[in-house]
Every structure is written in structure tokens, then in C-alpha cells.
Inverse folding.
């Protein structure tokens, strides 16, 4: 199945596809809102679990967002976390406080037998999540939001994308919009 934007790699069953010399991780796509029970358990969308299937950890790495103005939980696989850490070490050296800051924020959260995770209390409080959580795909990672805040954030990003579409060269190049 081809992904919507022209020039983006086709989705491979394992979530990863070799493109020349580069290894490309499948994108986390879509928006899903799931119930959070009183123990903090929430089901991770099946599409996201599938994208993580090749990771060496059956779960996610979760942390407070490192982006300004984003009160959400950011989540990725352990391999992606390792790549992020390696890039910080490559740029700033082994003793970097940035790497320490990154790892001190990160929490490994395993899947249970039903594909659920238990969100840590400090992350639930940070994102102000109560009885539902919205999962927003962000390409190589995803975010977990309080639903109303996630919807506002998503709309703001969509309007920004729409305004920047031409400058970014984004085109669906299909019969629906004829490449406009």
C-alpha cells in the first residue's frame, strides 16, 4: 500500500523497508482515541504496535514532550531512542548533559498480552489525561494527548500544513486533486 504523499516509501509488512543504502522506518500515521481505565491502562493502536513489531522491546519508550508548548507524551521504539541518543552523543560527546536529560525522562513501558500499556502517573499528570487518550501519528514517533488538547494541536498543525503546502512542495498527485 503506497503512502499518501508522492515520493514517500511504500509501507512494508515489517514496518521497515530498505531504500538504497538508507534504512527507513515506517511512519506512525493516523489519530486514535482510546479509553484509559482507572489503573492507567490504555490500548496502543494496532497499527502502531505493528510498526513497532521489529523493535527489540515489546513496548514503547515514553517521555514528556521535548517540544516547546507541547503538553503531550512522546513515544517511540527502543531502537529509535537509541538512534536519538547516538545522534546526541555524536554531536556533543559522551558526557553530554543532553543525553542524560533525554534518558532521565524516558520510561520503558511494556505491552501487556492485549496490547495495552500502563501510562506512568507522572506522564498522565503532565499530559492531563483522564479517561481517554488520543494517539497522534508523527512519522517516526507518536504522541499521546488529552483528547481536546490533541484535537486543538492537530487542527493548528493542519492549518499550518495547508498554509505551507506549496512552499514545502507537497502534492498528492492523484486523480482527486490532479497535483494542484
Amino acid at each position: 500500500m503506497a503512502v499518501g504523499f508522492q515520493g514517500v516509501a511504500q509501507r512494508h509488512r515489517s514496518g521497515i523497508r530498505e531504500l538504497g543504502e538508507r534504512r527507513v522506518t515506517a511512519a506512525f500515521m493516523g489519530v486514535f482515541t482510546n479509553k484509559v481505565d482507572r489503573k492507567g491502562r490504555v490500548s496502543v493502536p494496532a497499527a502502531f504496535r505493528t510498526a513497532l513489531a521489529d523493535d527489540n522491546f515489546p513496548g514503547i519508550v515514553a517521555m514528556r514532550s521535548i517540544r516547546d508548548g507541547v503538553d503531550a507524551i512522546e513515544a517511540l521504539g527502543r531502537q529509535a531512542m537509541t538512534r536519538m541518543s547516538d545522534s546526541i552523543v555524536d554531536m556533543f560527546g559522551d558526557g553530554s548533559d543532553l543525553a542524560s536529560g533525554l534518558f532521565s525522562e524516558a520510561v520503558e513501558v511494556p505491552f501487556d498480552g492485549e496490547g495495552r500499556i500502563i501510562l506512568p502517573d507522572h506522564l498522565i499528570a503532565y499530559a492531563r489525561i483522564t479517561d481517554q487518550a488520543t494517539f497522534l501519528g508523527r512519522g517516526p514517533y507518536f504522541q499521546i494527548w488529552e483528547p481536546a488538547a490533541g484535537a486543538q494541536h492537530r487542527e493548528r498543525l493542519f492549518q499550518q500544513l495547508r498554509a505551507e503546502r506549496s512552499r514545502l512542495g507537497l502534492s498528492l498527485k492523484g486523480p482527486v486533486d490532479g497535483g494542484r
Summary: Helices lie at 46-51, 78-92, 97-105, 121-127, 147-168. Strands lie at 16-19, 22-25, 31-35, 41-43, 59-64, 73-76, 107-110, 116-118, 132-137, 142-145. Confidence is low (pLDDT under 50) at residues 1-24.
